[in-house]
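Lab channel / #folding
Pinned by the channel admin:
"Please post every new chain as: sequence first, then the structure tokens as a reply. Keep commentary short and put observations after the output so the thread stays searchable."

First post following the new format, from NK:
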Amino acid sequence: MPGPSVVWFRDDLRLADNPALRAALDRDEPVIGLYVLDEESSGIRPLGEAARWWLHHSLTSLGERLRERGGALVLRRGPADRVVRETVSDAAAGAVFWNRRYGGPEREADAGLKSALRADSVEVSSFAASLLFEPWTVRTGAGTPFSVFTPFWRACLALPAPRAPLAEPREIAGPGRTPASDSLGDWALLPTRPDWAGGLRETWEPGEPAARRRLQEFLRDDLAQYDRARDEPGAGATSLLSPRLRWGELSPHTVWHETVEAGAGGRFLSELGWREFAWHVLFHHPDLARRNLRPEFDAFPWPRLQPTHLDAWQRGRTGVALVDAGMKQLWHTGYMHNRVRMVAASFLVKNLLIDWRRGEEWFWDTLVDADAANNPFNWQWVAGSGADAAPYFRIFNPQLQARKFDPDGHYVREWAPEHLGEDSPEPIVDLGETRKAALDAYEHVKRAARD
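Reply from TO:
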């Protein structure tokens, strides 16, 4: 069927290595970019506030880059199945292309839309773009999904190497008439009352060009010391690529191949593998953010929530230096160093005895890189209830972690300097006593599993 091609952008806000965009260009018809803000479809989780901030700026960048090359970006809001079909009708489009999503509700929505469009004689194709290895291609010898990372990643590396990234198009033929579009400002993605995003603006520049620059900076300046210093929050050795991958401003194929070409990166590439594993688990367990993967943890005796403890943790007022520094970094920048994320999460779950889902919800709202797989997956890992989980009895001692990974106090000095003076605040709970309480609760889980 002739007519323009619609490229439905989702978590792939880039022009380079975008298979859906490439397929549309190969069709040799005008191309219309579409982004749908879907907060209504069943099961689709609304974005957190920090994510909404990032999305606004990344869409701004994407729209500008499409226009520079002759294309257009249409913004529409509503249930995706209805909005995409309306856009196809308005544009008299003959084809729709998108890159695949892997969450349960998203897959169901995409499958239904694909069937409906084909019934209307519209060409539809979807592509692999956001993962190196699609979840159904990686199985155990018994044909089941992996539940442990090391054999999962070994199996991935035994598969054909990830494909080479696709080149960025220089020209994009736009339509003679572009369908009506919402104004991005009308979506009110940015905070105004109050405007709390000053720290995010200081820290980040969303968009594909900035993502490309950061990748090159990391490979040039930081990759060589990554293995040695990645766990030191004050060392500045982390890639800071997680939000770029979350929003698809970079593809994992680009990161993979450019890292390999740099001649290093074994440990860094395994971190890409950990990201893949999280999506692998979500694909097979769509309710990852709500339900314990290990069902015996359903018997965990969470005590009645103490709101003052949760509030202190969220605000970085626990009296525990490394935890408070991390939570303040999170609030200011929408980001937290990974080692500190583990420490802060362990403190919430295993010292404050607060359900991991409360922490997952807070990170979902405040992290610029929170996605549907990695955020709940990593919370369950810390809680001991998930795939490849750290045993529940492995409790991070935040004071020992600070001495080991921030021995000179650089990180704490930057984010929680009140902990370095003589009047340093006291912890809101006793670390030893709460550790014992957590282990007692874990014994309850083990007994329930045996009975």
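NK: The first strand starts at residue 5 and ends at 9.
TO: also worth noting, The chain has 19 helices and five strands.
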